[in-house]
Amino acid sequence: MAGNTDKWAYLDEAMVASSRKTIKELFAEDPARAEKFSIDAAGWHFDYSKNRVDRATMKALVQLAEASGLKDEIERMFTGEKINRTENRAVLHTALRNCDPKAKVLVDGKDVMPDVRAVLEKMGDFAEKVRSGAHRGFTGKRIKYVVNIGIGGSDLGPVMANIALTPYSKRGMKFFFVSNVDSTHLAETLRQVKPAETLFLVASKTFTTQETMSNANAAKAWLVDSIPSVNPNDVVAKHFVALSTAAKEVSEFGVSLDNMFPFWDWVGGRYSLPSAIGLSLMIAIGRRNFAKLLRGYWKMDRHFRTAKFDRNMPVVMALLGILYSNGYGAETYCCLPYDQYLSRFPAYLQQMDMESNGKGVDRAGKPVDRETGPIVWGEPGTNGQHSFYQLIHQGTHLIPCDFIGFCQTHNPIGDLHDKLMANLFAQTEALAFGKTAEECRAEGVPEDLVPFKTFEGNRPTNTLLADKLTPESLGALVALYEHKVFTQGVIFNVYSFDQWGVQLGKVLAKGVLADLVANKPEMRHDSSTNALIARYRRAVGR
Ligand code: F6P
After folding, report:
1. Catalytic residue ranges
2. What is the tens place of the pLDDT at every residue in 48-62?
3. How far, in Å, is the centroid of ligand 1 from the Cα of 504?
4. Is the CB of residue 482 less than 8 Å from the CB of residue 97?
5. Span 280-319, pLDDT tens digits
6. Is the Cβ atom of 112 under 6 angstroms away from ligand 1?
7. Is 499 a pocket residue for ligand 1 (Cβ < 6 Å)?
8. Which residues, 6 or more positions from 180, have their beta carbon under 8 angstroms from its beta carbon?
9. If you measure from the C-alpha of residue 114 to the centroid of ligand 1, how many angstroms do you get, rounded to a whole number?
């Protein structure tokens, strides 16, 4: 069986096997199920036994992956082929964390690894100078505040990882992330920092993004205004660095190339945390811990590249997602980290997954005939339990969930961690096994309340467990999801590394902005947009 259309017959086969028994029945017939349906890799234990799958389901799903040419696609990505065809680019975020000192990765015949290593060295030297006080501000004061200005992939990864690795962070320094073009974001940040002690990192792959450049220009004006000097460029030189692929734009902005940390067009924004975009994180946790983060990524990369599909954590995770989205019609999946430090992980995942696979045409440019990327959402547990879990347990939507937890906490206080983890494990148990009407009656639930207190169960969950949230386990976790998303993109047959869908709104906003500030009566939008613009103009007196 081959070809793009035929391959979906494997999903039909998987569905037949999957629908035969409930999760409860599957556990009842096989006491060793948890062991059989789990995978260990790169410090993570992945228990997928509480899914609607048996051996036959998994066999058919793996055949779906094989028939999609996944093996070859993985090699194409790792070896620098230009698999991002609509932008004619290689996709090599894996080269950024390739820790093999002898590795060579060729793009257009040139080995990219020497440049990767050189930038990491430059970042490390600079990060340590900032941390030690060797790099100081214009007036000679130590840098105490670091403000990363960036958006999308130039923000979400650094924010997520900065929060996640707080225990490894230099506590005497404070890190801020300004992304929104809403001036409140910058204003509230500047209220909390002192100009002479602040380093701004302007993070933008293109160095043309409206939000980032507007905020960076405003921050530069604020800094130059606040620190008197004969030559403002000398102030900027001490307080601004650029993280970008665009040398010309960086120079035009006024940052010298010595203060630029480059990366390359083969690093997608949403995959750029291990590149120069991670400089804020490196300053926070130091070059050694950053190297450990890269090592974690690399371990998962190697697992993904070499493990057989039925023992391959990202592949199995991707296949389960496709079973629910395209087999059972689930439109979303929920990411539930049981760790406060991972509070921004769901938001990070949203861009990674939805910007990658939120596509409506296949690689031939034809409308897809299957569901592609799912809607991703989530909140840290246990907070979600007291809010939206009701719907997951008893609502009409099927919502597969990823539960993420750690055996050890960085902050042991009494039995709080045991309670946290007890909740995680209990939720997966409740979702899988539910509670029957008979069980309710046996507990003495009055007959008229039985329907309300019954839990259907059979709700699928994955559990991801690691010893501790460390730079290494975080790197591996991010790589796990990256490769899951990659695998799904291959099976959906979409291009996962472009994002044309964000362009139209950006272009229209430029035209709308011209109309907002102009004082011309004629506007060429639809009647709703025209009226809204007119109302705004009246309100602000234009
Ligand atoms: O608008 C979407 C996007 O292009 C993302 O893909 C990217 O991460 C973000 O904008 C920021 O882009 P840049 O790093 O070029 O400023």
Report:
1. 355, 386, 506
2. 999 999 999 999 999
3. 14
4. no
5. 999 999 999 999 999 999 999 999 999 999 999 999 999 9
6. no
7. yes
8. 151, 211
9. 26
